[in-house]
Amino acid sequence: MPDPVDIIVGRNVRQFRALRRVSQLELGEALGLTFQQIQKYEKGANRVSASKLHQIAVFLDVDISALFEGAGMSPFGSRVELSPDAYALALSYDKLNSPAGKEAVKTIVTLMMGETAETTA
């Protein structure tokens, strides 16, 4: 029986891989593995070594802690769980260099949230 943390890590690898439109074959080739090994990692059937976790995080351009999201192991205490789209948006926002650009994004999202609240009320 796979360990629950292995299942969570595998699920997160699969989500980030899919979010970046990377196939199991492409990820496997980048790591020197077969796509079957990636399948086993994603199902939690095989454990991922620390060095492979690091390689996966670098290749998928995510913080290694993101691969453990949902495992109750966050060093930051309680954090909000984000969907893959929300996480991608947060990463893009964080990469913005312009304070005015960040403020514009916040304004747009705030306005859209107001529209959503008005239409559901």
Automatic annotation (TrEMBL):
PROSITE patterns: HTH_CROC1. SMART domains: HTH_XRE. Gene3D superfamilies: lambda repressor-like DNA-binding domains. Residues 13-67 form the HTH cro/C1-type domain. One of its GO terms (molecular function) is DNA binding. CDD domains: HTH_XRE. Pfam families: HTH_3 (PF01381). This is Helix-turn-helix transcriptional regulator. It comes from Rhizobium sophorae.
